[in-house]
Structures are given as C-alpha cells and as structure tokens.
C-alpha cells in the first residue's frame, strides 16, 4: 500500500484506490496518517472532527469511521482480510494507531530526501543539495491535504507543511544560483514572484538571476515593483538586505557574480543525477 498526504489524500495499492468515500472518514484517515505509527487519542479524534461542538453520538461515530477505514483497507481489490486490516489500524485503550511500513508514506520519503539534503549541505555539495531538494519538491502534488475537511490539528499540520515547502524551494533555488543555473531559473522565478508578490527572498533571487543573465534593467524593475507593492499594500519599505541588493545591482558589484566552479566536475555530477 502507498499513502500520500502531500496534495490530495491518496491510499492505493497495485489494484487502484482504496480511499473511503465519506468526508469525515477521510478526515480521520488523514489525521491517523499524519501521526502514522503513533497513538492518536480518541480525544484528539473528536477535537479534529468536531472541535468544541461534538455531538452526543461522536464517540460512536469515530468507532464507525474506524470500521469504514478498515473496510477500505480490506476491500475486494486489496486481498486483505478484516483481521489483517485490524493489524494495520490498531485499537488501543485510549485511541488508535495506523501502522505504516517505512517508505510507503510520502512523508517518510520526504524526510529521506531532507536527510540526504542536510548531509550534502554539510559537505557544501550544492549539486547534491539541488538534487535532493528537487526530489523533495516533486512529492507535493498540491497543497497538503487540499481535498480534506480540516479541523484544528490537520489545519496546523498542513500550514506547517506549506511553510516547509516554501523553505525547501528557497534553499533549492539558492543552491542552484550558486551553481550558476540562473538562466534555467528565470521562468520558474518569474512565476513565483507573480504568485507571491510580497515575498522578498523570491524577488531577491529573481533579481540576481536576471542580473546574471545580463538583464540589469529588468532586475531593477523587479525591485521597484516589489517596493511599490510593499509600500502600497503593507505600508513598509523593502528590507535592508533587499535594498543592499538593489545598490549592488546598480553598482554592478562583483559580489553578485557566480563563484567559479569546476565546470567539468559539475557537468558530470548533473548528468549522473547525484
């Protein structure tokens, strides 16, 4: 079985989707996946599904939805028995746990790539950083659990994952700028600054990519567009760091140039998919 939460909720095996159909049953499954292999208390389930407005039948409703998830896990196409599904979704004295094999949940795969990224970062291997972060970004198929009703717990987790996604993206672009990949990044960064019109770091990265591509005027226009948006919508000026970048672009500072790399080694690393 494969489980995925980085986008629409997904539960599949070799024969297709096993997802239950009821919205609150899917919501409970999502909650259990976010805490895979750990106890999720009944109280947490109630809080997620109904907040402070739990109906009298709430506890029985959770039991019913657990049964529905087990039915999905033991569906006609899965080849699993009801007893086997009970060993996957376990009942405990205080709640439930969903037992997920290592690597079958996209969050596990994400953590594997982030671990490899941290190792590459520690040895200043920007090719490795780019490779692992691009692989991590490819796991997102949209906003985390975008098709699931979100109570307090799932909403907080989904917000955190979107913050992580943005951090991963920024770190990836930073490494690729250091590698001299500014030409390849122009289209992506153009889309990103349009999508996030007050995001200073993305604008700074776009300014650098434009400047290194010989498009100084467009780099400066990007700064002025950001400044106009910030002052008109938020009543603030760009940060000191971004203002310094504008000054460096105007002065054509050598600090903005790509640090020379061993291009032969770099090309071989990129072709080998490190």
Automatic annotation (TrEMBL):
SUPFAM superfamilies xrefs: C-terminal effector domain of the bipartite response regulators, TPR-like
| The entry's keywords | DNA-binding, Transcription, Transcription regulation, Two-component regulatory system
The GO annotation for biological process reads: phosphorelay signal transduction system; regulation of DNA-templated transcription
User: Residue ranges of the OmpR/PhoB-type domain?
Assistant: 1-100
Identify the SMART domains for this entry.
BTAD (SM01043), Trans_reg_C (SM00862)
- Matching Pfam families, A to Z? BTAD (PF03704), Trans_reg_C (PF00486)
Query: Which residue numbers delimit the DNA-binding region?
Result: 1-100
Which CDD domains does this chain map to? Answer: BTAD
Q: Under the GO molecular function aspect, what terms does this record hold? A: DNA binding
Q: Which family does it belong to?
A: Belongs to the AfsR/DnrI/RedD regulatory family.
The protein depicted here goes by the name: OmpR/PhoB-type domain-containing protein
């Amino acid at each position: 079985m494969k489980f995925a939460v980085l986008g629409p909720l997904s539960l599949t095996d070799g024969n297709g989707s096993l997802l239950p159909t009821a919205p609150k049953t899917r919501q409970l499954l999502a909650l259990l996946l976010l805490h895979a292999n750990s106890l999720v208390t009944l109280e947490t389930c109630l809080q997620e599904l109904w907040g402070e407005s739990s109906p009298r039948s709430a506890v029985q409703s959770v039991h019913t939805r657990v049964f529905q998830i087990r039915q999905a896990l033991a569906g006609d196409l899965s080849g699993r028995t009801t007893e086997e599904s009970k060993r996957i979704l376990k009942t405990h004295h205080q709640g439930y746990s969903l037992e997920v094999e290592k690597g079958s949940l996209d969050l596990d795969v994400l953590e594997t790539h982030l671990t490899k990224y941290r190792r590459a970062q520690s040895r200043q291997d920007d090719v490795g950083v780019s490779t692992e972060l691009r692989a991590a970004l490819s796991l997102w198929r949209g906003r985390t659990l975008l098709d699931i009703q979100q109570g307090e717990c799932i909403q907080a987790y989904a917000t955190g994952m979107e913050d992580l996604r943005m951090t991963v993206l920024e770190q990836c672009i930073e490494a690729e700028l250091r590698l001299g990949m500014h030409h390849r990044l122009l289209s992506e960064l153009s889309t990103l600054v349009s999508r996030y019109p007050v995001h200073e770091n993305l604008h700074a990265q776009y300014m650098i990519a434009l400047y290194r591509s010989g498009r100084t005027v467009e780099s400066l226009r990007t700064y002025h567009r950001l400044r106009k948006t910030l002052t008109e919508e938020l009543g603030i000026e760009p940060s000191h760091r971004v203002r310094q970048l504008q000054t460096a672009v105007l002065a054509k500072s050598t600090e903005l140039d790509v640090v020379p790399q061993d291009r032969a080694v770099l090309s071989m690393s990129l072709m080998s998919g490190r």
